[in-house]
Design brief:
This protein is of the alpha+beta class and 138 residues long. It contains 2 helices and 8 strands. The longest helix has 15 residues. The structure holds 8-OXO-guanosine-5'-triphosphate (8GT). Pfam families: NUDIX_4 (PF14815).
């Protein structure tokens, strides 16, 4: 079995919505939606990798506010370990632009079940729903 690839992703929140990005055609999981991020480089920690990837992919600066549990997912072609972080854009950040994706969308949690999200992201979404639910309880 091959060594899993370590991947970071950001659930960037704004006004009750989360940013999702559509993968380009001709790549793994073509045209499916994901949380922006990417592979960790050797020796990089999750936060460093995530700041770098978000800058490369979206041209944005983020502040990480929470960590969700890492989850492993085995696709036919590759096994990944996804390291999700909740974040928001910093006050001085540029608006996100899809430098590497086909499209970006800010979605409410209620809409996200309709989205063709990468399979590895489904447990991430469940953990994020739990986090939001706990945060909204008195
Ligand atoms: N960034 C990101 N990648 C995800 C998510 N869910 C998921 O299955 N992945 C998978 O994790 C891997 C992340 O790699 P990536 O984004 O750096 O790489 P990529 O396929 O665009 O390739 P490349 O950067 O080597 O050209 C891909 O296989 C991607 O399909 C997610 O929410 N965010």
């Amino acid at each position: 079995m091959t060594t899993p690839i370590q991947v970071c992703c950001a659930l960037i929140e704004r006004a009750g919505r989360v940013l999702i990005a559509q993968r380009p055609p001709g790549k793994h999981l073509a045209l499916q939606w994901e949380f922006p991020g990417g592979k960790l480089e050797p020796g990089e920690d999750v936060a460093t990798a995530l700041h770098r990837e978000i800058q490369e992919e979206l041209g944005c600066d983020i502040k990480i506010t929470a960590a969700l549990s890492a989850c492993e997912h085995r696709y036919d072609a590759v096994t990944i370990v996804l390291h999700p972080r909740v974040a928001h854009l910093t006050a001085g950040s540029s608006e996100p632009h899809p430098h590497e994706h086909v499209a970006l969308r800010w979605v409410a949690l209620a809409e996200i079940a309709e989205i063709d999200l990468a399979a590895a992201d489904l447990p991430v979404l469940a953990a994020y729903r739990d986090l939001r639910k706990k945060a909204s309880q008195p």
